Amino acid sequence: MPFSDRELGMRRSITRRDFLNGVAVTAGAALMPWHLLAGEANSEEVAEYYPPLLTGLRGSHAGSFEVAHSLRDGTFWDAAGKPQDTGENYDLIVVGGGFSGLAAAHFYRQRAGAKARILILDNHDDFGGHARRNEFRAGNRTLIGYGGTYSIESPEPYSEVARSLIEELGIEVGSFPRYLERNLYGANGRVAKIFFDKETFGSEKLVDDPCPFPGGETYDLAVAGPKAWDHFAADAPIAEQARKDVSRLCREKKDYLRGLNTDQKKDRLARISYAQFLTELAGMHSDVIRLYQTVSQPLFGVGIDAVAALDASDTGYPGFSGMGLEAEGLDNERKYFFHFPDGNASIARLLVRKLIPEAIPGNTATDVVTARANYAKLDQAGSSVRVRLNATAVRVKHIGDPAAAKEVEVVYAREGKVYTARGKCAILACWNQMIPYLCEELPDAQKQALASATKVPLLYTTVVLRNGSAFEKLGANSIYAPGGYHSHVDIDLPVSIGGYRCPRTPDEPVVVHMSKAPCQAGLPARDQHRIGRIELLSTTFETMERRIREQLVRTLGPGGFDPARDILAITVNRWPHGYSYEYSSLWDKSVLEGGEKPCERARKTFGRIAIANSDAGAYAYTDEAINQAWRAVGELRD
Ligand SMILES: Cc1cc2nc3c(=O)[nH]c(=O)nc-3n(C[C@H](O)[C@H](O)[C@H](O)COP(=O)(O)OP(=O)(O)OC[C@H]3O[C@@H](n4cnc5c(N)ncnc54)[C@H](O)[C@@H]3O)c2cc1C
Question: Which of 52, 187, 271, 592 is deepest in the core (most CB within 10 A)?
Fold first, then answer.
């Protein structure tokens, strides 16, 4: 459906731009390294340095990955000048300022004392890794969104270590319902919807979703409306048989593997995809597959063709309720849940506050939500812990024989120059795939195992709308778009916490989250991720912006939404290296059959270098990032 750039508002001056040193810089500026904008070597010391407010293409932003890619391509060292010695000596150098790196620094201080000198390097212009804060100004009001890690949640219960850290940071997970303004959506009838697009379904319609799948980002607020089944039966532009099949799938309790015991059922479900389960076992019409093909993307990073039916069952997808396979994890997951308006970025900020109190004002787990981080304090000469941003580690090696060495040297690139620093030990809390390029001295088998941990690409887009009236008029709070550029369009959970008040009325500006997992159905999962990663890295912000505007007007237009008038800001959080790869019974059968897993082989401590990060556990959750940090610190040699 063609919309002109004018209708879409492509040239409208929204906040794709920021103000630095009083100068307005336009769209492309969000892509520029800070030091170019600020004209200073230590850009974080510029008062305006506040990355959460940057819009445009964020996540793995321009300037964050080029060094790593040239290292991969073998071109880095040809172009790099001779490293300059900073003369800095630390007890510990951590590569990676995500959860795992920050937690490792924290655990190390517990072990070595608060005076331990620690340097944390991260290639991004913000700390927190995937836990990324998006912040906006709309008039005189601040709006907060999440650009990555959404919440404290995990299919498995948090370990003692991870829970203790969360508690130590002052977060009372059980208190979440207190901050959730539940009746803003539920009670006034804003419900889950499905947007059927013309290209996929022949006609364009927004229809009540009678059976919202779990695993999205709306906690339990994405509920079916009271007349959802009637609406769906009357309006969904799919074959009549398919509409009946959806009803059967979601409402009937049927055992599709009668005659098998529980273990046999699990074994069978582990070997087929959810799409196969729907067609081959549940006998669903092909339109049902089209309808649900992308429903699993936010959680699994692939469509239902590549998700094992057993994983679908464990997640609570429909079709298994009569099979005697009750998913044990689900209750735990619901109970142990906490969502800050910026997702887990608040937890990263709490960790940074613990490590460097001057950097984040305040002293509670709720006041952190509105606290403005002072980035100039992150890397101060007199501080025992220093977080150095915009710094990509390019080499980590022992000084001398790894078995006997007393020190490691870490070389990093920052703002076009290369530097060295020394540490008594190092923790690599960065992505596993990067480590073979950093650490040439590792054994080949370990390097191979590290390299196999390719990640799952994801796109998390945050859009600020002038108001939420279109959602209100359409009665929607969460929209699944099977054929959309983004598969999910949600108003964020209404959470008011600390000094932050979420939008409460339809005429207030509202933060909308859109998510997409770029992938290509029909291929093995890893190939899908590889293709998706290339797609993310090669798509311009302009193209993404056009797709976002087009998707929003097609979905919300009938509710009075005008993209040229109503979009105030867009931040696209691009994560070509997103979730840690989790082994799947469909694609990694031999790995799951027993023996040492690649992630176990990959994370072995080597001399004075230990390996943390969520890849080290092949598990894409915050608790694993913490668990692996704990293990890595425990394995460090004194
Ligand atoms: C979009 C998205 C949503 C998610 N949602 C959730 C959620 O709701 N709940 C949940 O529990 N988990 C979620 N996750 C998983 C998330 O990855 C983990 O929770 C956790 O944040 C991982 O922490 P980490 O420190 O292991 O990795 P990261 O957060 O990725 O941090 C590693 C850091 O190391 C940096 N680095 C890499 N190489 C180098 C180098 N050479 N030099 C310097 N720095 C380097 C990276 O750029 C990165 O900043 C989500 C992930 C994504 C991508």
Answer: 52
